[in-house]
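Two proteins, back to back. First:
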Amino acid sequence: MNLRFTRRSPERAALRAQVAAARLRPPGRPARTHDPQGVRRDIIAVATGEFARSGYSGARVDEIAARTRTSKRMIYYYFGGKEGLYVAVLEEAYRRIRTVEAKLDLDAFAPAEALRRLTAHAFDYYDAHPEFVRLVMIENIHHARHMKRSKAIQALNLTAIDAIRRLYERGRAAGVFRAGIDPIDIHMTISALGLFHVANRATFSTIFKNDMASPAARARRRAQIEDIVSLYLASGGR
């Protein structure tokens, strides 16, 4: 079948656009899809690695664009610029950890067991996602300047505190947790102990000649942190 295009036909215009796009696209880069959300997710995934590896100041939008299915222009279109992209990366990082936490179903377990499960989960998550730990460290270096722009991050973390508050109140009612502890302090203690194992792994392993990344070291520290948090909340702990 012969397809004959008039000079101004829509078919001819579409064909010319496809040819032009193919010529402009760098070798090896796949064609863009008509999936804006998919492209956005792809950009955030690549940007997460770039920001975690190079920090906010060292990350380059050009490098992120080169490793995604889109262009630098489209990154600016979706996120408004480098800072907007970084905020989106932080939001997604916190959304993921809180989404996983929500699936723990802590209400189904006795308070003491639920506390141990929450503590162990936090340790395991940080250990499996060092990029999250690095993003937290980087944002602290910047005094949370970018995080302050995000209402989503604040809302996400309130859900974590609410879950701990319910757990703590159940423990108080059952007589297994002592009085006078702020749920934020519980969250801070669990986070601090778990994050430290990842954030300071390189320096501690070097200084004390102890491989903190080994399975044995991880299992030992995980159990220690569970005991520390449990004793901190125990009704006879103070």
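And the second protein:
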Amino acid sequence: MHIKEEAIERHTLAVIVDNEPGILARIAGLFTARGYNIESLTVSEITEDKAVSRITIVTSASPHVLEQIVAQLDRLVPVHKVHDLTTEGDHVERELALVKVRGTGEQRIEALRLAEVYRARVVDATISSFVFEVTGGTEKIDKFVELMREVGLIEVARTGIVAISRGKDAA
């Protein structure tokens, strides 16, 4: 008997939920209990009355496991809807990072030059360091951080991925 192995794919999920205490813990617990990994997690209120939130989750799973994840999320009471943005069509993903870099002399000049190439903005500067703000896709931020390691990387803080589908329809 030959068992076909399913490919693991990265998926971005938009989960629309009631904004109530404990919902994030319940969703994270669902992933943890079943051994699923959350690669990125962001949460924000999306209605004027702050009653509804959008949780964006990035995870990697086989199609079968992803189907289970979506079904289990859909069963949670405060969950309104789960959208797999990856399979539903074109979507836009962005992440923001703050990158602190040590820099004097030539290293300082190189850090500023690289920041210009990556459209990173200086949000804080001292005589011996910079904090850059960079936004874009995960790959762009990964590359910027990698280059800053060579110049004098001190610290990185990242927001996680936010995503939204393209077109006229809302999640």
